[in-house]
Amino acid sequence: MSHQQPVALKVILALMGAAVAVAAGYAIQHTASCFLSSFVIAYLLDPLVCRGERAGLRRLTSLIVLYCVIGALSVFTFIYLVPLVTRGWESLLHNLPSYFQKIRELIASQQARLVDSFPAMADTGWLLQSLSGNMEKFSARLGSGLYSAASRVAFNLFNLVLAPILVFFMLFYKREVIEGIKVWLPPRQREHILTFGREVNASIGGYIRGQLIVSLIVAVLSTMALFFLDVDYALLNGIFAGLSSILPFIGVILATLPPLFFAYVKFQSGVVLFKVIAVFAAIYFLEGYLVKPLVFKESMNLNPLMTIVVVMAFGEMMGFWGILLAIPIAAALKIFMTHLRRGEFSAGGEG
To answer: Which of 92, 135, 200, 226 is the most exposed place for a label (fewest CB within 10 A)?
Structure first.
């Protein structure tokens, strides 16, 4: 028991340190967001830099080549894709009130039909009127929320300029930083900590890169399907579907709701709603049973209920980055607890 007390104390101190770090990150959330996004980008790009080194290039040369390729792709994106998304976004902001107006008109017409067909339902008209009034309030809140989101995107343009600089130095000085961290590790536990770090790196790195690939595939398939069905704002809905795929279990529901809304307002047909649901069911079936097994070589084996709770909690604290990193952080904690139960972080370690 005596050797377990220092371990428990270290765990408590580590949790307290993590809590202080989260609180500090919340206080300087914009700076933390810029640094965190730069770190994630550098983390994703590092395997490409290492591949260039294995091909015989120096790290600086490999970095320059990578930045040239990314620069060419960025120019293409800003010339073709960004204006397309921007026009769709502006059109959505402009036309959204008219969509809700059409919904209110549909509710009113359905109410009149129900009363004519079933006079006994005249007393229930308040329910549809209440629904119409709530739709109006929701429209106003959603409109203000979209404008607020647009302003945050404008604010984050500064991060767009600063991030490439931070990413470059993170990648260039990677080895120096790692060696500096190794010096501070306890000699007796150094090998265990490095093994733990390698396991976490493999788990988190594989998950983040795999999730980005999955999100891109879902976004492309959803955009193509909605364009084929002639649903309004197919590109924006497809991008939203790709982002929603980050959320486990509930992402498919969130991704389906906006296309159903736009499809019903435009066509006012239950057949179109069935087609949209069928398309998204097929896409997420392929995602769950074909794409993810191919992309994710190793499962994180996390409890579904715990996964949802962790995603909600980190999303509340850290926004988008909390949602994206919640599962990797949970996986890292699971690996840490596995090593801790083995006694590998005790004072003397094993063996």
So the answer is: 135
